[in-house]
Amino acid sequence: MLADAGLYLSAAGLAHAGAGAAVASSVSRPSGDPDDVIMNLRNTAERYGALAIALHWLMLALLIGVYAAIDLTDLYPKGSAAREALKAWHFTLGLSVFVLVALRLVVRWSGPVPEPAASMPRWQQRTANLIHLALYVLMIGMPLLGWLVLSAAGEPIRFFGIELPALMAANKALAEPLHEIHETVGTIGYFLIGVHALGALLHHYVMRDDTLVRMLPRRPGA
Length: 222
Ligand code: HEM
Ligand code: HEM
Fold this sequence. Notes:
CATH architecture: Up-down Bundle
Radius of gyration: 20 Å
Helix content: 55-70%
Order of helices and strands: HHHHHEEH
Largest sheet: 2 strands, antiparallel
Bound molecules: protoporphyrin IX containing FE
CATH class: Mainly Alpha
CATH topology: Fumarate Reductase Cytochrome B subunit
Strand order of the largest sheet: 1-2
Number of strands: 2
Distance between the termini: 29 Å
Number of domains: 1
Shape: elongated
């Protein structure tokens, strides 16, 4: 999973290098001055700060792990140790999404959120905002739904080996419908993430604005 993320980030870095010139005017030069370093951590009206950027790409890596773990269970027979281990990773990584999204909201609410590119028509700004909102619903709702599925099934909920309390009393009749909702929303999540990523790539390669670049780490001296 981390290898995937590393690969992605290097690819993203290359894309950044290509588009850097287009946004040079809107990005200030980090000088190494401690004040600048702190400023670079936070969002500005033009660009995402290092904290928001790190949390954004870490979330992508985490979600690749969450989806991969549960999808790979199909390779192993029911009840096998490998299948159970993959499920346990799905639960732990899924609960980590919940922790990370809380941090992300704190960062988002503690400063400005960059304005959309000025060239973007209103309908695109509204669509992008709606998709961002839906992604937040996914990042908060899916871990909670998963937690509810295990609670209703009366199964233990382990986060890195620590047992968490059940969110509701065991109720086998509810476990199946909750599982189905979790599964359906999980599938919708694939599409949402795909549309969101496609939008970012269209902005970068077709509309050639700074939407993607400002969500990428700054190059030193850029
Ligand atoms: C963002 C977080 C999460 C996403 C995107 C996600 C997504 C998914 C997906 C796509 C499936 C496959 C459904 C299927 O084909 O059967 C699944 C199954 C499942 N998930 Fe999650 N999940 C997340 C978090 C969690 C958490 C935190 C838990 C529990 C603590 C959990 C518990 C389960 C359970 C019990 C299943 C059914 C496994 C089985 O078939 O035995 N999920 N999840
Ligand atoms: C698959 C690759 C991805 C790419 C290329 C990508 C790209 C971007 C870009 C360029 C922005 C800035 C948009 C703007 O300024 O209007 C952004 C923002 C955002 N992205 Fe992604 N993203 C990806 C994956 C994800 C994933 C997996 C999630 C969460 C499920 C996510 C959630 C968000 C949210 C909520 C924002 C709004 C800003 C914020 O609150 O952090 N992205 N993304």
